[in-house]
Amino acid sequence: MKKKIRVGVLFGGKSAEHEVSLQSARNIIDAIDKTKYEVVPIGIDKLGRWFLDDAEHLLPESTTEGLADADQNALVTLMPEGRGELVGQSTSGAVDVVFPVLHGPLGEDGTVQGFLRLADVPYVGPNVLGSAVGMDKDVMKRLLRDAGIPTAAWRTVHRFQLEDLNLDDVISELGLPLFVKPANMGSSVGVSKARDKEALIPALKDAFRYDNKVLIEAFVPGREIECSVLGNETPIVSVPGEVLPQHEFYSYEAKYLDEKGALLHIPANLSAEAVEQMQALAIRTFQVLCCEGMARADFFFRPDGTFMVNEVNTIPGFTRISMYPKLWEASGISYAELIDRLIQLGIERHERDQKLETSFF
User: Is pTM beyond 0.85 here?
Assistant: First the structure.
């Protein structure tokens, strides 16, 4: 009998998107092909501690609760250059590959990816650079702009610049309304829509709760279209889907707390020419941002029939109702098959990188 591949599913994290991560992890653990893979659940609490335990002990039933209290004897870590070896008071051998289901800072931003690379273990999703670029919206937008890929006009504000910020200048440059968002955050955490100058001040204060760098972004009229990208050197792209928020915008509440917060139209009602244009732009964006494995690309489809890139998400929501897997299901790849493909892509990249020389002599 062929040995099962041990997959460390890494979830939780020291991030404001902790609870979203738990939802994604539960769905992945439930759906993964148990005849091929042995799941090793690894939860990270809000203090950043790693725990190895059964999924039912770590994952709460409620979607608004954090990682369940774990036995302190279950603390675990990975060995540098240990090839997936888990070390703790109760060791559990090595994992063959890690599936990080971590959304937001300290999980999606290259930090965990760098740690996993030092541990010499394959992992799902983009590498260190692609993850870091995909997380930092300011750097992402600069790379897109320099590559000639259209993105909304913006102003970046660091915390130390806040006292000297001239809001009248910002409004003159970008117009109204404006979106204010943390540079390094997802799931619409800390995002506000400011319709006037007075609303900008509390919006900035809220965004600075989550990051030391904030974007003030021009409003772009248009439809919100998303697509999923999958692959390493030769990525493929899904059919498009349209998000129709039932709130002021596609907020955290609309995404995760209100069952009727948004309508998802899959596939989106677009002409064949528009779909082809969007898919080509999605792959180009994926490659410009040095992504591998997976990403969800989000666009604005403007009234003039052109697309503008909003952002990419390198570890998108992974619940059964999340856009990334739903778009692949509509494209002919089931949820379980998608998990399988992502794991194999991570293993293939690791095998490719292992062929690189690490010594000059």
Answer: yes
